[in-house]
Amino acid sequence: MKSEKATPTSEFVLRLSATRRGARLARLLAVQQLRDWDVLDTAAAELVVAELANNAATHGRVAGRDFEVRMERGEDHVRIEVSDTRGDREPVPVARPDEGGYGLVLVSALATAWGVKARCVGKTVWATVPLTEPRRGQNRVTFPVPSC
């Protein structure tokens, strides 16, 4: 009998309840997926997923409706999409938020591009986050060789 191997995929999709717990799970599961894709530095993508999922659960929430997280891994980036069912409230980044949140300013700083696209029901907020390669020898200390 031949054993079947899972085909590696560069796409990750999940639906979660539009709650704080759902937003937290989105972040945790996204980080696990990034690690499964052998992404070493997950910090930027993790922050973007956390912010977009939190916004979907807080500002895009419609009672009884879930939100969706989708990630696609490219060669040097990951595209993150978070969809919710509330199309009437589109996010707008501002330099000095009046409601106390700097989340979209953070997304804007970490992503090479981001935006909003309409759906039949709701909207999708997307961001493209570059994947950085670890710098070889970054923490390495070298001493000059003394001349004799």
Secondary structure layout:
Blueprint: E1 11-17, H1 20-36, H2 43-58, E2 66-73, E3 77-84, H3 103-110, E4 113-118, E5 123-130
Antiparallel strand pairs: 1-2, 2-3, 3-5, 4-5
What do these coordinates show?
By secondary structure, the chain is of the alpha+beta class. Helix content is 28%, strand content 25%. It has 3 helices and 5 strands; from the N terminus they run βααββαββ. A 5-stranded antiparallel β-sheet has the order 1-2-3-5-4, covered by helices on one side. The protein starts with 10 loop residues before the first strand and ends in an 18-residue tail after the last strand. The relative contact order is 0.18.
Describe the structure concisely for a colleague.
This protein has 148 residues and is an alpha+beta fold. It has helices at 20-36, 43-58, 103-110, and strands at residues 11-17, 66-73, 77-84, 113-118, 123-130.
Could you name the key traits of this structure?
single chain; 148 residues; alpha+beta; five-stranded antiparallel β-sheet; 3 helices; disordered C terminus
Give the termini separation: 68 Å
Task: Report the order of strands and helices.
Answer: EHHEEHEE
Could you give the count of β-strands?
A: 5
Order of strands across the widest beta sheet?
Answer: 1-2-3-5-4
What is the number of helical segments per DSSP (H or I, 4+ residues)? Answer: 3
Structural class: alpha+beta
Rounded mean pLDDT score = 82
| Sheet of most strands | 5 strands, antiparallel
Question: What portion of residues is helical?
Answer: 25-40%
Rounded radius of gyration (Å): 19 Å
Shape verdict: globular
Q: How large a portion of the residues is in β-strands, by DSSP E?
A: 25-35%
Low-confidence stretches: 134-146
